[in-house]
Amino acid sequence: MELSGTALSCTCAALLLLHLGLTSSMAHKNEFQTGLAGGEVTLNCTGILPESQLPRDSVVRWKYSDTLLWRMENNQRYWRKPSFIIGRSDIKTQFKLSVRDLKLSDAGIYTCEYGTHKVHTSLHIVNLTISLDGHFLQNEVPELILTQNSSSPLPDLSITLFDSNNNRVTPEIQNRSRQKYIVNLKKLKTVDSGTWVCQIHSDSPLINQNISFAVKVLGFQNPDLERKYAIVDSPVILSWDLNSQKIKWKKGFTGQLNWKQQEGVESHELLDFSITAEGQLHETKKSNNLLFEIPESKPESTIQVKLPKVHFNHSGQYQCQLEYERRHAQSKIELVVMKVSANPAGPLSRGASVTLTCQVSGPLAPNAYLSWEPVNGAKMDIKNSKQREVKLEVNISTAGLWSCHLIEDGDKKISFHYHVEEASVWINNVIIGASIGGSLLAFALGCLCIISGVSWQRRRQRAKRMAQARQHLLENKTCQCQHRLRK
Fold first, then answer.
1. Residue 238: φ, ψ to 5°
2. Left, alpha or beta for 115 (phi > 0: left; psi -120 to 50: alpha)?
3. How distant is the alpha carbon of residue 93 from its chain centre?
4. Region of residue 75 (left: phi > 0; alpha: psi -120 to 50; beta: else)
5. What phi and psi, each to the nearest 5 degrees, are found at residue 343?
6. Fewer Cβ atoms within 10 Å of its own Cβ: the N or the C terminal residue of the chain?
7. Tens-place pLDDT, residues 68-79
8. Nearest 5°: phi and psi at 455?
9. pLDDT digits (tens, 9 = 90+) for 184-218
């Protein structure tokens, strides 16, 4: 079918408009790109021919807003770098503009021009900063500040955090605006050291960006409060492991080790220490209140003290504290000492009994208790203390081996074995002989006393009768004399 002149003209006009529209669309292209402050970004000049295929009289320009950055004319390149970008930009192949060490102020519209061909790139800059330059002590709370800048209206960002173990962290947003987001994290532990990821997202414009940042947590790998159990007169080593070598901490810090027997009393400084940026440990003994040693052979970044023969009153809190830039972190070890005594002390004779007392020097955990258990030679049920009681007594009348256990969460933390000896046969015979001899001696003494008493009573009666006789004779003589005188 043939087209009329009018129809043909309309068709040609429509094709021309469509061609012009496609040409205009291809000549002007808008792109969006996100860059990280401190990083590098490369902006593309999309759709331009390679430099080798361009006519000799070609002119290519890069502009920031209306400011000319770079141009190529007649195959000659000219930089006209403004002060804000001097030394931080280059032109790569395909006329790509590379900008490094990005700053928030670099955000804006960058345009690549070639004749009527223009590519507009809106550069959106995001800056993430972390408090204390990412160097923390344990139990400190980091603060993250996320700032963004763009020539377009700022998008509403959603923030997701992942810790060094790739666990999602729910942050507390302290302050929020389109330009700045201030986020508080959790209290840090030494295991949180490593690379964290801040994931930011926006639907319009579409932004999916992962920002990595380093977190170093200096502290002790011990628990915040550790209990160490020891038997009286035995050696014990108290040890604190620092993670400075593990996280490659490049700055020096100092610290000290203090001891006090209980809360509310004065503490004693046992030693102080310092660790250089090279990781060398220097320790100095400070106190003579406690007999202890500093072991020479031990792992790096480890603080240790050795009590060669622990006493019952050596128990208490041993607190190791480190200081870095006037900030402190500490770790405590609670030393609990166990002792056993017998009353009366010595071998157990036949028919006698003895009281065994098991005692610990400090408070126990809520789920801990003491237990007396016969091991051999004894016939008695196990006796347990009430929870948190620090003393337990048991009365026994049979010799044998007895054990006092400190049990926590079903585990025996420490045991003291006490052997009750049975008195030897000759000792028992001596005791029996002494008892019989004592009884016989007492009987003999009693008999002697009785005989002496009877004899003394007889002598007394005889003396009394003799006295009476003398009195009677005297009276008779007196009467006879009086009778003669009367005559």
1. -105, 130
2. left
3. 54
4. left
5. -135, 115
6. N
7. 999 988 888 888
8. -60, -45
9. 998 999 999 999 999 999 998 999 999 999 999 99
